[in-house]
Amino acid sequence: MDQAEKVRTPASWVVVGLDNGGTCNNATVLDATGRFLVDHLVENPSLVTEGPQAAVEALAEAFDNILTLTRTPLTLVRAVGLDTPGPASATGVISSKGSTNFSQAAWHGFDIRGALERRIGLPVLYQNDANAAALYAHHRHFGDAAMSTSSISAIVGTGMGGGVVVTGKVVSGAAGMAGELGHVQIPLHDVLEPDQPLPMCNCGFGGDVESVASLTGIKNNLLPYWLKRFPDHPLAAEPIGRAAKLLRGYGEQKDPLALAVFEQQAKAIGKLFTIAANFTDPEAYFLGGGVVEAQPTFRQWFLNTVKENTGLRREQREVATFAVVADLDMAGARGAAVAALEEIQDR
Ligand SMILES: [Zn+2]
Hints:
The protein is an alpha/beta fold. The protein has helices spanning about 5, 50-70, 110-120, 130-140, 210, 215-230, 240-250, 255-280, 295-310, 315, 330-345; strands at about 15-20, 25-30, 45, 75-85, 125-130, 150-155, 160-165, 170, 285-290, 320-325. The longest helix has 24 residues, at about 255-280. The radius of gyration is 21 Å and the shape is globular. Bound molecules: zinc ion.
């Protein structure tokens, strides 16, 4: 940083956050004082199914669009924070085995971060989407206290993602695989029924958090079991994938089968948070995803069930907060921007 830059007011430079998803990119701008210049979703098609070249071009377009929209001159941008779904390395190289979002062979082992950096000519800093969301949840909740506090976020979707934040920074790990909370194995003795088979995860583990607390877990493990206990349930007539998606609506109506499934999910997340309590002892436990976007009474019941099943010591209970992740649709872009800002400030 040269002398002229040092005397500028902090707000005179910005970072851009770009969240790359299966169908859309979402973009935001964060100034150096920590203020977002965009208060709503700004999306463009991500074109990931058209391969890396089209997708990198679409990200560059999202970048240009957001600068135009916020009337931010390119010269004020110090860096770009990029997040994508995983699995990818800590530096944004998509897994050599590909992934759900990046299934074409051209994506396998593709360095999306490096490609975007070359395309736009600015430093690009990478996060996986769940870590970015966790970081945003943390900063939004703690504000000025963000850099002196810790949290854990569990985000329930098709899989189960999340992130671990310690003193304001997301823990990424040696290989970029820290915070893969869905694949943490948990004790299941008071989660499963005595005759319930061990739930299996796509990663190969039996009895990890995602095998229970995800849409995939509902479809592959929980619903097939519970439909045997409720053979006359209307969902028994639906294809299993559709039945899994319809289940939340039944939960909101207090349907006993649906509540049994969601109770098992909440207990599984409580077991995960118990592990977190003994690892990093965070100030806050955040929950995000479909289940918390549900109707408020159901959401509160779910959050309470998670809390009741998190084994905290008295001293921890007195200081811990349980909350839902707000603005989840913007959390990826915003978290990626926060990570970029932190990185730049540290340099
Ligand atoms: Zn797993």
